[in-house]
Amino acid sequence: MDKKIINMFPGKMIIQNPGEKYSDLLKNFVKPFEKDFPKTFDAVDAINFAQQAWNLGCISQFLSEEEFAKNLGDFPFAFSKKENNLLKKMIQAKKSEYAQYDRFISEFKLEPDKNGMMTLTVLTEDKDSFIANQMNDSRYFDDDEDDFNESDYEQGFINRTAIIVKPIQPFYEWIISISPGFPVPPDQEPMIYLIEEDINDFDKWLRKNSEKLFQMALEGWTTNKKQWPQKRSYKLFREWFRVDVATMVYDMEFEPIYKEL
Question: Global pTM?
Answer without folding.
Answer: 0.49
